[in-house]
Specification:
Arc Repressor Mutant, subunit A, elongated
Length: 128
Amino acid sequence: MIYESGEMYLETILILAQTHPEVHAVDIAAEMGISKASVSRALGRLKEENCLIIDASGRIAFTEKGRSIAEKIYERHTVLSELLVSLGVNPETASEDACRIEHDISDETFRCIKEHRDKMSTKNRTAE
């Protein structure tokens, strides 16, 4: 099982990969505001957990397992942020709170939140 900080690294790599053709440890360190040494230790653990592949030039790529975890956490972050903003929370606070919640929320609760969001979205579209 991947620990919370590992999930944060995977999510950060996924986000960086959307705008960087290649992701390296230095990119992660800059994005997260932490030392390259801390990133290197975390990447080593994620590699041991079969979540990442790091080639000889330091390029970081996901394994299937790593991508799955990163996408799951990113989806949770996005959905929870949107929900909190829709409730009136300012976007910055919503993103920070979603970041804390995304790691601890159960699959069942998250599924119910998504279903509720989808029902409300459908209801709002039919009311227009």
